[in-house]
Amino acid sequence: MEPPIVLSCLAGRRVHLGVCGSVAAYKALDLMRLFRKARLRVSVVLTPAATRFVTPLSFAALEAEAVDTDMFAAGEGAPFGHLRPRAVADAFVVAPASATTLARLAAGLADEMLAAQALAFSRPLVLAPAMNPGMWANAATQANVRCLQERGHSLVLPVLGRVACGEEGQGRLADLEDIFWALLSKLCPQDMAGKTLLVTLGPTREPWDGVRCWTNLSSGRMGAAVATAAFLRGARVLAVAGPGAPRLPGGVERHDTGTAREMFAAARSLWPQADAGIFTAAVADYSPLPLGEGKFKKRQAGESLSIAFSGNPDILFHLAAERRIGQKVVGFAAETSDLEAQATAKLEWKKADMIVGNLVGGADSGFAGDKNTVFVRDIHGRAESWPVLSKADVAWRLLDWLETL
Ligand code: CTP
Q1: What is the pLDDT, as a whole number, of residue 377?
Q2: SS3 content of the chain, % helix, strand, coil (to 5)
Q3: Rounded distance between C-alpha atoms, residue 147 and residue 170, angstroms
Q4: Each residue of 15-45: pLDDT tens digit?
Q5: Closest by Cα among 77, 80, 98 to 28
Q6: Among 9, 147, 165, 188, which one carries the catalytic annotation?
Q7: Rg (Cα) of the chain, in Å, rounded?
C-alpha cells in the first residue's frame, strides 16, 4: 500500500489504535502500517475478543510502542495502563469497532482495557465499526452510534458490500485510507474550516483518432497533495481531476474530466463557490484536430505525418479574469530552464496572486516523484526558493502562504 501522505508536521504525533473482535481485525495491521508510514507513533489495545483474531505479537512486530490487552496485567505502567493513552496519545482510533464496544462506549462501561482507556480519553476519538449488516441495522446499535456522534466522536461508517459471513449490506469496515484520513484530520489544525478551495490536478487527454490521444506526463501528485492538505485542515475541497489523477480522501468533492475543455467547463462552473483556486493541472495548450472514431491507418500518411492542432482555453487565465474581489488564484509553472524568470512572467501575465515554479526533469522536482523543489513568488513581491520537500510539505507551506495573501 502506498503511503498516502507524509507530513513532517505530523511526524512523531501519537495515535492509540484500538482493535475489537471482528473478522476485519486483520485489517488493523494494515492500518497500523499506514500510520507508521506517515511517521506517527502508535500504541495498540486489543479487546479480549480481538486477541482471538490477531495477536499482540503482530502489532509489536510492526513497531507498536505498547500493546495492551489485559487491564490487570503486571508490568510497565501497571496498574494505571488504562490512563496511559489519556496521558500520551493525541488521538484514539478504534478500527474495527464491534457492536459490543460501541455499546460499551455509549454506556460508559469500563470493564475491559479498550473501553476503560476510551472512557478516560479526552482527545479526539475516531470509531470505524465493522459487523454483520443485521447487527449494524439493529435499533440498539443505531442508537449507540447516534449517541456517540452526538457526543462529538467521529464515526467512519461501514460501507456496503459482502461481509465475511456471506451476507450483503452495510457492515464492511470502511476503506483503510478513509479511516486514515479521518484520523489525520484530527491531528491537523482546522484553520481552513469554512473555506472552499478549487484545485485542478493531473494531465488532460485530448483524443485524436479512435485509439490515440495527446497528453503529458503529469501524475497529479502535487495537486493531490494540495487537495488532501486543504481537506485535512478543514477546507471544503472541489477537485477537478484529469485522467489518472491519484485517489483523494472520500470527503474531497472530486470531478473527473478528460479534455482541457472539459476541465475548463468543470472548473468554471465550480469557481463561484471557491474562496481560492490552486491550479496544478498540466493542461494541454493545444488539441489535435480530431479525426473521429475510426483508427488512423499509416497508409493514409506515408513516411511522415503532420497533425494540425487548435488552441485550448487557459483555465487559470480565464478564471483569474472572472474572479470576484477576494478570490485568490495560485498558479504553477513547470519549466525546463530560467525558472525564476519564467515563473515571474507567468505570475504577471496570468494575473495570479501567487506562482509556484518547479523545474521538471530533475530527480527531486518532477511530475512523477513524491518530492518537489520549488520557487514561490506572490504579487506583493515576496519570493522564496524552498529546499527539496515532500509534495505534502510543499502543499502545506503553500496553504500557509495562501492564508496570508
Ligand atoms: N494552465 C491552465 N490552463 C492551460 C494552461 C495552463 O490552467 N490551458 C495553468 C496551469 O495549471 C498552471 C499554469 O497555468 O497553473 C502554468 O501552466 P504551464 O503549463 O506551466 O504553462 P503554460 O501557461 O501552458 O505556458 P508554457 O507552456 O508556454 O510554459
Answers
A1: 97
A2: 35, 25, 40
A3: 19
A4: 999 999 999 999 999 999 999 999 999 999 9
A5: 98
A6: 165
A7: 25
- For the Cβ of 359 lying below 6 angstroms from any atom of ligand 1, the answer is no
Per-residue pLDDT averaged across 105-127, rounded?
97
Pocket test of ligand 1: the residue of 283, 286, 328 to mutate, having most ligand atoms within 8 Å of its CB, is 283
User: How far is the centre of ligand 1, averaged over its atoms, from the C-alpha of 392 (Å)?
Assistant: 21
213 among known catalytic residues: no
**Residue whose cell numbers read 467521529:** 154
Query: Phi/psi at 392 (nearest 5 deg)?
Result: -65, -40
Decide whether any atom of ligand 1 lies within 6 Å of the 144 Cβ.
Answer: no
Of the pLDDT bands very low, low, confident and very high (cuts 50, 70, 90), residue 2 is low
* Band of residue 73 on the pLDDT scale cut at 50, 70, 90: confident
Confidence of residue 187 (pLDDT cuts 50, 70, 90): very high
For position 8, what pLDDT does the model report?
87
The C-alpha atoms of residue 29 and residue 5 are separated, in whole angstroms, by: 18
Question: Are 100 and 49 spatial neighbours (Cβ–Cβ below 8 Å)?
Answer: yes
Distances in Å between the Cα of 50 and the Cα atoms of 24, 100, 152, 162 are 10, 12, 25, 21
Res. 341: pLDDT tops 90: yes
314 alpha carbon – ligand 1 mean position (Å)? 7
Q: For each of the domains in the chain, give its residue range(s) and CATH number, in order of start.
A: 8-187 (3.40.50.1950), 196-286+308-402 (3.40.50.10300)
CA distance 240 to 227: 10
pLDDT tens digits along 143-165: 999 999 999 999 999 999 998 88
Centre of ligand 1 from the C-alpha of residue 184, in Å: 32
In b/e form, how buried is each residue of 273-308, taking b as 16+ CB within 10 angstroms? ebbbbbbbbbbbeebbeeeeeeebeeeeeeeeeeee
The answer on pLDDT for 1 being more than 60 is no
Residue located nearest, by CA, to atom 9 of ligand 1: 316
CA distance 200 to 286: 18
First to last CA, the chain: 37
332 lines ligand 1 (CB under 6 A): yes
